[in-house]
Every structure is written in structure tokens, then in C-alpha cells.
Amino acid sequence: MATPHILIADDHSIVRLGISLIIQKQYPKAIIRQTDNYQGVLDMVAKEDFH
């Protein structure tokens, strides 16, 4: 199985943290990126392959 590469986008840092912790507990090898705005999503999606 390929390593999950996940982007979390939310304007609340506590929400991003909570989601990250849940994902990391279930998928310890997951690569998780975070952003707090739409432009950040566009920038990250242009640079990286999320799946």
C-alpha cells in the first residue's frame, strides 16, 4: 500500500491538530500537510500529489 499523503484544510488550528492526530493514530506512516486557507490549498496541490 502506498503511503497516504493527506492535506488538511481548516481555518481553526485546533481542528487541524485533532484531525492530524486521529489520522496519525490510524496511519502512522501518513504524510500530513496542513493549511488554513484556500490559497494554501491551491499552492500545496500544485506542488504535491495528495491521495
Salient structural properties:
51 residues; 2 strands; single chain; two-stranded parallel ribbon; alpha+beta
Description:
With 51 residues, this protein is α+β, with helices and mostly antiparallel strands. The chain has one domain (5-47). Helices cover 47% and strands 20% of the residues. It contains two helices and two strands. It has helices at residues 13-26, 38-47; strands spanning 5-9, 31-35. It has a two-stranded parallel ribbon. Strand 1 (5-9), helix 1 (13-26) and strand 2 (31-35) form a beta-alpha-beta unit. Residues 5-51 form the Response regulatory domain. This is Response regulator transcription factor. It comes from Olivibacter oleidegradans.
CA-CA gap between termini: 12 Å
Which spans have pLDDT < 50 for at least 5 consecutive residues?
Answer: none
Give the strand order, joined by hyphens, for the main sheet: 1-2
Helix/strand order: EHEH
Rg, nearest Å: 11 Å
- Mean pLDDT over the residues: 96
Overall morphology: flat
Beta-strand share of residues: 15-25%
Number of strands: 2
- Main beta sheet strand tally, sense and closure: 2 strands, parallel
Percent of residues in helices comes to 40-55%
State the helix count.
2
Q: What count of structural domains?
A: 1
Task: Look at the helices and sheets and give the structural class.
Answer: alpha+beta
List the helices and strands and how they pair.
Layout: E1 5-9, H1 13-26, E2 31-35, H2 38-47
Parallel strand pairs: 1-2
